[in-house]
Specification:
This protein has 2 domains: about 120 residues, 3-Layer(aba) Sandwich (Rossmann fold), CATH 3.40.50.2300; about 40 residues, no CATH class. The longest helix is centred in the middle third of the chain and has 12 residues. About 20% of the residues have low confidence. By secondary structure, the protein is α/β, with parallel strands linked by helices. The protein starts with a strand and ends in an 8-residue tail after the last helix. The protein is about 25% helix and about 25% strand.
């Protein structure tokens, strides 16, 4: 299990990264870029530079700190900004991030071949029961993959199954 530090100032996105990386990795989150000593025992750092820049939390000192890290780093930034540090073990991905792009960057930084085969074909991992009626609401991400957001089970069939026929005794 890898230790991953996510540097993200937004609480909701901190949670989203934690959910996306769990259970394969142990995730820690910070709102600001730490010094080199804080990332010494970390296997990988993910820096959302675009979000830090929006909060004016990415200055020359922070860029220099990241430049001097020895820890593999994923740098998330907008396509038009070219302020990413240039060093070994640093992968730059676009701010419009997809789970597949994140998995590829993780594999490249951690030196693994394929971290999650289950994300390669999301339709093959879906299991549906033929006896229950289900409705699904879905959204598509940038690459056109379907992400199931909500699954509602028809409660009528569940209630009917739970009612046992009543027997009369004389």
């Amino acid at each position: 299990m890898s230790r991953i530090l996510v540097i993200q100032p937004h609480k909701m996105l901190q949670h989203a990264f934690s959910v996306a990386l769990f259970p394969e990795h142990r995730v820690e989150v910070m709102e600001m870029i730490p010094d080199a000593a804080a990332v010494k025992d970390i296997d990988l750092v993910i820096v959302d530079a675009a979000a830090l820049r929006q909060r004016n939390s990415l200055a020359t000192r922070e860029l220099d700190d990241v430049q001097n890290w020895k820890t593999p780093t994923i740098w998330i930034d907008g396509a038009t900004v070219a302020q990413a540090p240039t060093r070994e073990k640093l992968v730059v991905i676009d701010q419009a991030i997809s789970k597949d792009a994140l998995q590829k960057a993780l594999a490249e930084c951690l030196g693994t071949t394929n971290i999650a085969n289950h994300s390669a074909n999301p339709k093959s991992s879906r299991v549906e029961s033929p006896s229950s009626t289900k409705r699904q609401s879905a959204a598509t991400d940038i690459e056109g993959q379907v992400i199931d957001l909500v699954e509602v089970v028809d409660e009528g069939s569940v209630r009917e199954k739970s009612k046992a026929p009543q027997q009369k005794t004389k």
